[in-house]
Amino acid sequence: MKPRSRITVSVLLALLLGTTLLSVLVWAQGKPTPHPIAGREQCLTCHPTNTLPADHSGRSEASCVFCHPEAPTSVTTTPTSGGAPTTPHPIAGREACLTCHPTSKLPADHANRAESTCAACHPEASAQPPAPPAAPSTPHPIAGREACLMCHPASKLPADHANRAESTCAACHPEASAQPPAPPAAPSTPHPIAGREACLMCHPASKLPADHANRAESTCAACHPESGAAPVPQPTPTGPMDDSGCLACHSKPGLSYTFPGCGETVSLTVDATTLSQSVHGKAGITCTGCHTNITGYPHPKLEAEDCRAFTVSRAEACVTCHAEITEAQHDSIHYRLLAQGNRDVPTCVECHGGHDITPPDEPRYRLSQTCGQDGCHTSILDTYRKSAHGSVIAKEEDNPYVPVCEDCHGAHQMPDPRTGEFREASPELCATCHTHPNVVARYGLSTDVYRDYRDGIHAVLREKDPSIQTPICTDCHGVHDVKGLRTNNQAASETCARCHTAIYGEYKQGVHGEALLTGNPDVPGCTYCHGAHKIPDPNTPQFRIGEPDLCASCHSDAALMAKYNLSPDVYVTYTQEFHGMTVQLYKTKWPSASIYCYEAVCTDCHGIHEIRSHTDPKSSVHPDNLIHACRQCHPDAPDQFASAWAGHYKITRERAPLTYYVNLFYTILIPLVIGAMAFFVLTDIGRRVVNHFKRGKAS
Amino acid sequence: MSTHEMSTGSQRTFIRFDLSARIEHILLIISFGMLCLTGLPQKFHNYAWAQSLMNAMGGIETVQTMHHIFAYMMGIETVYHVFALFRSIFIKKSPNRFSMIPGLKDITDALRHLGYNLGLVKELPKYDRFNWKEKVEYWALIWGTIVMFLTGAFLMWPEIITRWLPGYFIPATKAAHGGEALLAFLAILIWHMYNAHLAQGKVPLDTTIFTGKVTEERMRHEYPLEYERILAREQKEPWRKSV
Predict the structure, then answer these.
(1) ipTM of predicted complex
(2) Three-point CA angle A598, A600, A605, nearest 5°
(3) Given an 8 Å threshold on Cβ–Cβ distance, is A641 in contact with B162?
(4) Global confidence as pTM
(5) Scanning A168, A651, B69, B106, which has its CA 20 to 30 A from the CA of A71?
(6) What pLDDT digit, counting tens, does each position of A422-468 carry?
(7) Is A670 within 8 Å of B186 when comparing Cβ atoms?
């Protein structure tokens, strides 16, 4: 090889190596980091992925410094990022910055930054103001009333307090030094409170003043203490005898007894027919079987001061035969209240009757009616009668597929439904029927609701951390006024809004929400996108990557879109350009979305809950605003950049003339050139074949 | 660089491509091949084969990065080619320096070749150093490279391009990039594959572009005008006959 060739070879081989190396280097060039990196290695905290150039997606944090080393000038330690204001209050003890400065109030470029980094740019100002200025102090003792939101529900708080945690109230609203003696005009409780702590039982929430909504029972006494002179509950007794001997006297009308303690008069007349028709009468149980204290005439003096005391003492007679049930009853809320001295709770006879005891479930509906009788659970029974359950059984009184009170609450072993345990167990309670094939088939319900609910974010979150309050069945469907939500999109969405208030507020501003409020059944309510029971975590990569298909489930429906004069091609056009193509390919490569896809999906440009028409000047995709949507990922995009997006329109001569003509050019040029080449190749092959045979003939 | 000839054994061989050109060709094979492999599946991303291919190569983003790297490689190769051309024309003043310029003869040659294939003309035209088929391919490559680099740059740096041009140039260049890519790929598939692998005397492979050598017989047969020119020059200036 000649020396000159050797040089050429070296040059070109160097080129071959160099190209690869250089391309990697060119590819990897980056601006230096203008601040010290030490102590700030978590780059993504301040430079979240959505502010990075599109081609940075999928890179790991650890690799940032490879291309963006510390700039030499950064050694001067810039006093933190440019104009970040200092924190005007002490930070110690208030590290949960987002509590008072929710992300919605932060500058847009702060999205996704972690709380722990706030102080890096916003250090404590040297001169601290004594605390936030005009926050009024708390006019009552805080000890024992830490659950601030109970009396000061979030809806009553100033708008900028949204999302702040209860635990931080006192930071700005300390206890005022001079405490007013207690809330002013609250009337005191005219009866003893001991044994009657279940205030809501007699004073149901519906009867309370409107501003008492959401307050817990346990706080009533704080403002309504027991008044000095409490009236004592009232008495009454009764007492017949066995055999016809008893009835000889007690079947006479007008027989009565007046309790000496309270002057209450009760009838002592017993209807012989009723008695004989009762379960005990049929079983041949005599009067003294229950009235064990009476052995003859004259009867012993009644010890009971009043009728009520007598009834309670008579219930003890039931245990003679019904020991098991009585035993079971010892766990019930009624018995426990009774044991605490509350004499208003029912004993055996209040529910089952005295002389007229008949099977309590004939018909089944009677079981519910019993609970609502005599002013006990009347309002609950009224509510229940109108519910999905009650309305059915009121008509079909023996329907075995519809729950009556005792199906959920139990008959004798009746737990306190206000406890955490009852709440926690109640989804399973609902599931006993709602997974039952007979029930489900009969009423055309889904068998999967319970399983779906368990898989949903609400149940999953609570399973991970039981202290998180997430809804159970009854929170959405109602307790005694239980109802299905399938048929009413708006009611369903408003149910979600009870907790997700801010999001629902956003949603109502958008086209979907606006239409929903007018009763339009076509638009998606919350559950359309999020599901009703199997609610997925919407912040996962899986949910993100599924978004285009979710939107397309309506927006590709030609008939539906025609109704609103919308294009059904939005999804197809989306998948034909870079963003949609990449998302589509991500799904084929990583179906479980194990890799986060940074490529723009529908909501990145259109917004999530507040989706507005592109003709609405407030819309993020209005032509005047579109560039800001672009700049979320393409921060350096100039104003003209937005028009690179063809706007979900198909390429037509009118809409995108340049692209249209480029396509036309290649539609003509490719067949022309390739056709000509193929034609020549074919003639050449033909000639060779002909030549081959001619030569064969010649030889 | 001029065409050198060497004697090896009984048959004389001529050097048709110098080492520089041969390495350029290898660089082109690698970069063009990889650009097709990483680019066409992106154009046809709706098809299952394209998706499987891209997934096999590591996913769309890896494929795009590879596409960019091989684009840089081809770009540098192109710069080198321009530099080599410049040297050949202005510094070395090679006798073959204008041999790629198309002329009227190329059109008549093409028509005559076609006529020969169709049985209208008895003999093939006599070709010089580069025949019309090779010129078609070379200039198609030049045209394609210009279009692809221009549109590729638009697609790689849309934020910069739209500082000067309206945004609708981006989808238009994307259409052009895809159209031109398909044209180039099909042209190589039909024209180059046929002429370099299947044409008369080239099966299975014309090795000249890798060895640089052509036998005297092939020179006489395929490039008769150049062959005659070399022989005539050797007669006139025998001292220039090389190695």
Answers:
(1) 0.90
(2) 135
(3) yes
(4) 0.64
(5) B69
(6) 988 899 999 999 998 888 888 888 888 999 999 999 999 999 988 88
(7) yes
